[in-house]
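During data preparation, a discrete fold description was generated, as reproduced here:
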Amino acid sequence: MKKFILACFVVSTIIACSPKTETASTFAVPADVNSYNLDSSANIDLVKKMVVAFETGDSATYRSLYADSAIFHDNGSDMTLDQNVVLFNYFKSNNVSVKVEKVDPIWEIVNKEASPNGITNYVMSFQHTVYKKGDKEVKVIVSVVNGIKDGKIVEEWDLYNAKPMFDLMSQK
């Protein structure tokens, strides 16, 4: 019995000291699906970086994450990147600060076929934001879809209740 226990100890020690080999997991997309979802990716990280730049008012970083020709659909109103960046100054001039409490949930949809404008990757997120002016604040959940191509956001759809934000900005 002692020899058996000693043998088990020696074998487990050898296994524990053996170099670990990393195995890459591969994901085979079934042939019969049109798209699949990811819970982590470089594109999700790109959107998270955009959220931080928006929250901190870093318009240079924010702008660098978008294609120059990016199109925004902000509550149904279309605008360019330049028009969207103007919002940074609008909040600032109205003494409104923005805090993103959390981005949850967030996931990426990868389509097998590209849309007419060439997008196959879309990051969906719900951004829980707090807009504050003086001692007053409002919480707004923004539903955001970012179309991403070649490592840049090329199209964005935002839906949210704008009324609490405008009410806050109109307060003295």
Summary: Residues 6-15, 20-24 have pLDDT under 50 and may be disordered. The CA atoms of residues 45 and 71 lie 20 Å apart.
